[in-house]
Design goal:
Length: 324
C-alpha cells in the first residue's frame, strides 16, 4: 500500500463522513446516524425491492441471504487454506447477527416494539445499536485474527503487521474527528439554535467557540496521525536495516515530535479555557472542562518509548562494534 494511496483513502473517508453527518439532518429516514451506514441503507434498498412485486421480492430475498451468509462463505473458503481457530466462531456469529439485524432494518416497525422505551427515538436508536453490534463483531474478529498472525510471525513480518496497524489507526483517528466529533459539533449548532429561538443576534462568537472546541478535541488525533506517518517511515527503514544511521535519525525525530505533541495538547486545552473566561459575557454556551485525552497521551507515550528504545539499541550496537 503506497503512501499516496493511503492519503487518497483518508481523503475519501473524510468526505464520506462529512456527507453522512450532513445527510442525517436532511434525510433522517435514510441516514439516521453515521454508525448505521451502510446497513440502514441496505435494509431500505431491500425493503423497496421487496415491495416492488414478485420478482423484486425474490431478488430482495436472494440479496438478503447472500449478504447475511457472506461471512460463512469466507469461512468455508478459508477452511481449505488454513487451520480454523477459536476466533473464527465470530464469523458464524456475524452471519447470525446480520440475519436478525438486516431483517429488522427492513421491517423497521419491529424496532419500535423492541425499543419501545425510547419513544420516537426507538427506530433510530435501534438501527444504531444493531449496527454497532455488527461492527463490534467484525472488528473484534479482525483484531483477534491479526493478533494471531502477528504472534506467529518473524521480526520482518511483525514490522509489516505493525505498519498495517498504524495505517488502520489513521482511519480510526479520521473516524473520531470527522465522524464522531464533527457530528457532535453539528448537534451543538442545532441545540444552540433551538435554545435561542428569536435571539439569533450575537450568536456568532458562540459558534466560533463551538468550532474551537471541536478543534481542541481534534488536535490530539491530528497530531497522532502525523506521528503514525513518522513511525511508518521509521518502520520502513528498520525493515531495510534496523541498525542504520537513518534509523537512529528517524527515531530521534519521532521522539522529538512526540514530546512537542504532548506540549501542544496541554497548552491548547489551557488556552481554550482561558479564552472562554475572557469572552464569558458574550457566550451563550460555555463548557469549560478539564480535557485530558488519556488514550491519545498513552498512544504518544508508547510511540515515544519505542522510538527511544530503538535509538538506544542502535547506539548500543554502535558501541559494541567499536569495542570489537
Amino acid at each position: 500500500m503506497t503512501r499516496k494511496f493511503v492519503y487518497i483513502l483518508l481523503a475519501l473517508e473524510t468526505v464520506l463522513l462529512f456527507v453522512l453527518n450532513l445527510l442525517k439532518y436532511s434525510f433522517t429516514d435514510v441516514f439516521s446516524s453515521v454508525i448505521a451506514f451502510p446497513f440502514e441503507q441496505i435494509g431500505l434498498i431491500l425493503k423497496l425491492l421487496s415491495g416492488s412485486g414478485l420478482l423484486g421480492n425474490a431478488i430482495a430475498l436472494t440479496l438478503y441471504l447472500a449478504i447475511c451468509f457472506l461471512p460463512v462463505y469466507y469461512l468455508i473458503a478459508s477452511k481449505d487454506k488454513r487451520k480454523l481457530h477459536l476466533e473464527d466462531a465470530l464469523v458464524g456469529l456475524l452471519s447470525s447477527v446480520l440475519l436478525v439485524s438486516l431483517y429488522l432494518m427492513i421491517n423497521t416497525e419491529n424496532l419500535e416494539l423492541i425499543f419501545i422505551g425510547l419513544g420516537a427515538l426507538g427506530v433510530a436508536a435501534g438501527k444504531a445499536i444493531l449496527s454497532i453490534t455488527i461492527w463490534s463483531i467484525l472488528w473484534g474478529y479482525l483484531i483477534l485474527r491479526f493478533i494471531r498472525l502477528a504472534f506467529d510471525s518473524n521480526t520482518k513480518k511483525l514490522i509489516v503487521y505493525s505498519s498495517v496497524t498504524l495505517y488502520s489507526l489513521c482511519f480510526f483517528f479520521a473516524w473520531i474527528v470527522f465522524g464522531s466529533n464533527f457530528g457532535d459539533l453539528l448537534n451543538s449548532f442545532f441545540a444552540l439554535q433551538a435554545q435561542n429561538t428569536g435571539l439569533q443576534a450575537g450568536l456568532g462568537i458562540t459558534y466560533v467557540f463551538l468550532v474551537l472546541g471541536f478543534l481542541l478535541d481534534a488536535i490530539p488525533y491530528i497530531l497522532n496521525t502525523v506521528i503514525v506517518f513518522l513511525a511508518l517511515d521509521l518502520l520502513t527503514e528498520m525493515y531495510n536495516d534496523a541498525h542504520s544511521e537513518k534509523t537512529e535519525i528517524l527515531s530521534k525525530q519521532l521522539s522529538l515530535f512526540c514530546y512537542k505533541s504532548l506540549g501542544i495538547v496541554v497548552v491548547s486545552g489551557i488556552s481554550f479555557n482561558l479564552l472562554q473566561l475572557l469572552f464569558a459575557k458574550t457566550l451563550r454556551n460555555t463548557e469549560a472542562n478539564l480535557s485530558i485525552p488519556i488514550m491519545s497521551v498513552l498512544f504518544v507515550l508508547t510511540v515515544l518509548f519505542f522510538a527511544r528504545l530503538i535509538s538506544e539499541n542502535r547506539a548500543l550496537k554502535h558501541d559494541n562494534d567499536l569495542f570489537i
